[in-house]
TrEMBL record:
Entry-linked InterPro entries: KH_dom-like_a/b, KH_sf_prok-type, KhpA
Name of the protein in question: RNA-binding protein KhpA
Lineage: Bacteria, Thermotogati, Synergistota, Synergistia, Synergistales
GO cellular component: cytoplasm
Subcellular location: Cytoplasm
An annotated GO BP: cell wall organization
């Protein structure tokens, strides 16, 4: 299993104004890789984006990275 958390952390850290507050965790849940993102509440809008466009793009990148190792991945933003 690849380290998807590091990939997501790299992307999200460049989007937010407070990169030190970015916390990304990876765990296996029901046979899927679950990547949870926590950011400073002030940066939540930057990660989600207009109509969810930014988080959708992050999910597409994560799924593309997971294809090679045939992992199923779910990326969630936690409050």
């Amino acid at each position: 299993m690849a380290d998807y958390a590091e990939l997501i952390r790299t992307i999200v850290s460049r989007l937010v104004t407070m990169p030190d507050d970015v916390d990304v965790r990876q765990e296996i849940e029901d046979g899927k890789v679950k990547v949870s993102i926590k950011v400073n509440p002030e940066d939540m809008g930057r990660v989600i984006g207009k109509s969810g466009a930014t988080i959708k793009s992050i999910r597409v990148i994560a799924k593309a990275a997971a294809i090679k190792s045939k992992d199923k991945i779910d990326v969630v933003v936690e409050e």
